[in-house]
Design brief:
This protein is of the alpha/beta class. Helices cover about 50% and strands about 15% of the residues. It has helices at about 15-30, 35-45, 55-65, 70-80, 85-95, 105-115, 140-150, 165-170, 185-190; strands at about 1-5, 100-105, 120-125, 160, 175-180, 200. Helix 1 (about 15-30) packs antiparallel against helix 2, helix 2 packs antiparallel against helix 3 and helix 4 (about 70-80) packs across helix 6 (about 105-115).
């Protein structure tokens, strides 16, 4: 089973940044100016480092709930196709058992997976309680746990990512480990962990 990350790996971009810009444009087109103001306010707080990325994502998705229609997520996912990393995209397309494992929100990650014909995905979801304190991003060891929970009878043979947050995922892959355009800190962390990943651009 091949497990591939999204941001910086399958696509050459940060999908969340693209998403809140997409959402911002939607609030203006639909005259949902309260949503526009909320995005600006939360973005400012995040830029000033007064809130966490996790909190920012939570609040942006609440605005999305109020502004976007179900079909908008498909439209946005279609736009992400323009940012596909050709080498990673071709590799994923050539394999049947692929899991898209990402910290991105499931609302659009699921649409992208369907568009690309990827059978399985795990992503960040809002908790059933709808409480921020229960909101857990699909990253690090949590990503590995969710992949194992979703596909308990499968083993991770290959892991493809770009970031040191996914070190647990790389360690879980008993076959090939791939780093896509890694930062020096990511490469150093992988080396320190005893890994010898392939490096892709």
């Amino acid at each position: 089973m091949v497990v591939v990350d999204l941001d910086g790996t399958l696509i050459k971009a940060n999908s969340f940044v693209l998403f809140y810009r997409f959402l911002f444009s939607a609030t203006l087109r639909r005259w949902r100016l309260l949503g526009t103001g909320r995005i600006c306010a939360w973005a400012l707080l995040r830029r000033m480092r007064l809130i966490s990325h996790r909190r920012f994502k939570w609040e942006i998705m609440k605005v999305a709930d109020a502004v976007l229609l179900d079909g908008d997520y498909k439209i946005f996912a279609d736009e992400l196709i323009n940012f596909i990393n050709p080498r990673v995209g071709e590799y994923v397309s050539a394999h049947k058992d692929v899991v898209l494992a990402t910290a991105a929100s499931v609302e659009y990650a699921s649409e992208l997976a369907r568009h690309l014909g990827i059978r399985y995905y795990v992503a960040t979801e809002r908790p059933p309680s709808l409480r921020f304190k229960d909101y857990v991003e699909c990253r690090g060891s949590e990503k590995v746990r969710r992949v194992s929970e979703a596909l308990p009878d499968c083993r991770i043979t290959e892991a493809i990512t770009d970031h040191m947050d996914d070190l647990p995922l790389l360690l879980a892959a008993y076959g090939k480990q791939v780093l896509v355009n890694p930062a020096s800190t990511t490469l150093a962390a992988a080396t320190e962990a005893g890994l010898k990943p392939e490096i892709w651009e």
